[in-house]
Amino acid sequence: MDSFEINKIIAAILLVVLLVIGIGKVSNIVFYVEKPKTPGYKVDVEQIASSSSSATEAIEEKLDIAKLMSLGDIANGEKIFKKCAACHSIVKGGKNNIGPALYNVVGRKVGVVEDYKYSKALASYNKEWTFEELNGYLIKPAKWIKGTKMAFAGLRKEKDRASVIKYLNQNSDSPLPLP
User: Fold this and answer.
1) Range of the domain at 141
2) Could you tell me the pLDDT band of residue 80, with boundaries at 50, 70 and 90?
3) Which of 6, 18, 58, 170 has its CA 20 to 30 A from that of 33?
4) Which of 167, 147, 156, 159 is nearest to 88 (CA)?
5) CATH no. for residue 130?
6) Chain mean position to CA 37
7) Tens digits of residue pLDDT in 98-118
8) Would 8 be classed as within a structural domain?
9) pLDDT tens-place string over residues 54-74
10) CB of 84 within 8 A of CB of 101?
11) At CB < 8 A and 24+ separation, what contacts does 125-129 make?
């Protein structure tokens, strides 16, 4: 290949690049649209707290756990718990499955079931499963305790969460009094 052919190839490439840039500039001039000074609509976005501790405190302040628990029904909780039964056992002396056994869970310290390997997040959580903690966790486990290996999406309805918490509380040697 001689230098004349190389020059033709380079010239062709430069011509294509200049055409693409030129067509872009010309189309911006031909199809120019002036932006309005005021937008047609405004979207208000609430600022969400970035730290999880302040978010959990805000949820706890808004939440009236006694009112929430009054929505629940143990029979409904037993039905809803069937979603949980795929991974958790609820019977006394039940074995750990994919998730730990949940008998006596209400009032128990988080991450203490023997013979179960908890995620680092749950093992170091250092709280008890109170009615409030269970409610927050059941909304969306991965968001409540970041790093948990529980892949459950959560229960959106307050009545469903209250029912499951009542059912878990009932399945205990000494159920806690409801708030």
Assistant:
1) 52-170
2) very high
3) 18
4) 167
5) 1.10.760.10
6) 39
7) 999 999 999 999 999 888 999
8) no
9) 455 545 455 688 888 888 999
10) no
11) 129/105
H-state helical runs in 63-157: 65-71, 74-80, 120-123, 131-139, 141-144
CA–CA distance, 122 with 129 (Å, rounded to integer): 11
Which CA distances in Å does 124 have to 109, 131, 141? 11, 19, 15
Q: What tokens appear for 109 in the block?
A: 């310290």
- HSE-up of 176 (CA within 13 Å, CB side)? 19
- Integer-rounded Cα Rg, in Å, for the chain is 30
Structure tokens at 120: 């680092």
Q: How many domains does the chain have?
A: 1
Inside any domain, residue 32: no
In a domain, 37, yes or no: no
For the chain, counts of helices (H) and of strands (E): 8, 0
Q: Is the pTM of this model over 0.70?
A: no
Check whether 126 has a pLDDT greater than 70: yes
What gap in Å lies between CA 68 and CA 72, rounded to an integer? 7
